[in-house]
Batch of 2 targets.
Target 1
Amino acid sequence: MEIRLFSAMDYLDKFVDASSQLVNAYPVAASLILGLGVIGIARFCYRTLSVFLQIFVLPGHSLKRYGAKKGAWALVTGASDGIGKEFAFQLAKAGFNVFLVARNKETLDAAAAEIASKYSVSTKTASIDFAKADDAAYESLSSNFQSLNVGVLVNNVGKSHAMPAYLTDTPKDEIADIVSINVNATLKVTYSVLPGMIQRRRGLILNIGSFAGSVPSPMLATYSGTKAFLSTFSSALGEEVAQHGITVEHVNTYFVVSKLSKIRKASLMIPHPAPYVRSVLAKIGLPCGAAYSRRPNTSTPYWSHAILDYAMTAIDIPTFFISYTHGLHKSIRRRALKKMERESKAQ
Ligand SMILES: NC(=O)c1ccc[n+]([C@@H]2O[C@H](COP(=O)([O-])OP(=O)(O)OC[C@H]3O[C@@H](n4cnc5c(N)ncnc54)[C@H](OP(=O)(O)O)[C@@H]3O)[C@@H](O)[C@H]2O)c1
């Protein structure tokens, strides 16, 4: 042990000697390298500190700015379950009337009744299947909220693949449904709600995205592409409407316990919808983990998701993340197929 310590000290001495010889020989170059190193370290420390302050200390915009407790409505798509249902409850608690949208009228009405019994706000529901909706269905949906003062829109509805698969093995209707739900519904509902927000010079639009949008995800290529759309769309629209006092935020989400994720147990990295949505609503306007990701109008607010996003931005080796995700999805598909085989044998 002592011998090792001595030899490590020896190497250190040699390194210091060689460094001082270099500094003496090339003082300008050495100072430049040292200066750049110090700037790099200071920049990293500043960024890390600012990200941690945003995640753990700084408050986001107050929801009052968007009409909480002033009679404004919050419109939430995919509001009968999972993250969307939690948005409906927490926005009602914050003082918004809530308009819940999904396919199943019964579950929507049950959620609306529970909200109305818990909080003194008004509720409305509308049933629509975004996978099949035509122009008439969208017109009928928007006729429900044209006269309402919508302060918050949560474009939450989303669909992923039944299991990871290469594009050519993915059913055509699954691809079409994912695009219709994740892209068209967001565009069309936003298109209906935005003119009223512009007129009132007030509004918050939350587009619920996924890490699959920031890390291209092989074997979930369609879902991944639709979620990447949300990021670029939010950056562009956010700049368009900032002049009207409207905030657009793409909410970057890692896993959350829900039917869509097929995860039932919460963990450090996988919260239940309640703490997840609390973090989103507490950090409006703060990019948190997405602060240095070159994705304006994106926020990664949940603390463990935020640290992961920031670490991935700092490491910055996209090809590594893509190939890791590919391997992961190959193994998920293998296990899903085995499970299906077992189940079909058991029948
Ligand atoms: N959970 C995660 O780990 C995770 C991770 C990243 C991103 N996200 C995103 O978070 C959002 C919410 O996901 P979630 O996990 O909360 O999903 P979820 O629990 O499966 O809930 C989906 C909601 O959307 C509604 N819905 C589904 N298909 C619909 C359709 N065709 N037309 C209208 N409504 C429909 C469902 O109600 P009906 O069945 O009654 O229609 C339900 O209210 C999605 O955009 C998802 O991509 C989730």
Target 2
Amino acid sequence: MSRRWKTLVPSVSVLLALAGCGAPPGPAPRGFAPRYEEPAAADAAHARFLRARRLPERAADALNAYLDLPYQVTVLARSCAGEGSGYDPETRRIELCYDDLTQERELVTTDEEVADVMTETLYHEAGHALVDVLDLPYGGDRAEEDAADRFAALMLIREGPDGERALRTAAEAYARTPPDPDDGRDEHAPPAARAAAHLCLLHGAAPERHADLADRTRGCTPTWPQARDAWTHDLAPLLR
Ligand SMILES: [Zn+2]
């Protein structure tokens, strides 16, 4: 699966052996590992924002405190020239795009809200990485996208009121996102449906703190216990 992984490890061992170094190779790296690429000039301010807020580090720390991965997944912040953030199973890389922030700043107002939306994106991509790690049998792109959204909600709800605020900000940003004209080919649910699914879980998890969502979420599915229990069941082999 990972060409980078399989070529790097043996070559390091060979180099150590050739150098006559008696120390055994250290344990293979594992867990979510943040990295930054130099940004394109147009993305320099976005890159500074991500670094200053340490969003990849903070997400990786929370994920690693919760889960013990069998190998390393890089969380790579980089300029993507509009490709959009994503997870690449070949390289086991989450690519978090500096240039996504241009679009996010059109949807939300404050730096705090931008950070909230990017954190939700990070956890969504981590959800894809975990579908890959666990080889979960999602039948179809849409089902995996929905599961990745539910993983993002789970991570944020686990963080308590601050995470709940971030989830709510991300949901409201989806609600303000215009529908994609290529909607039929987009693997994600329409933005309004993604917003509704997040708000459903949020109200289900903390109804007292989000009492104003009662009417908008009445009868919604999957419910918070269903979503939480499904992911917790799937994550069982990795839970610390
Ligand atoms: Zn996705």
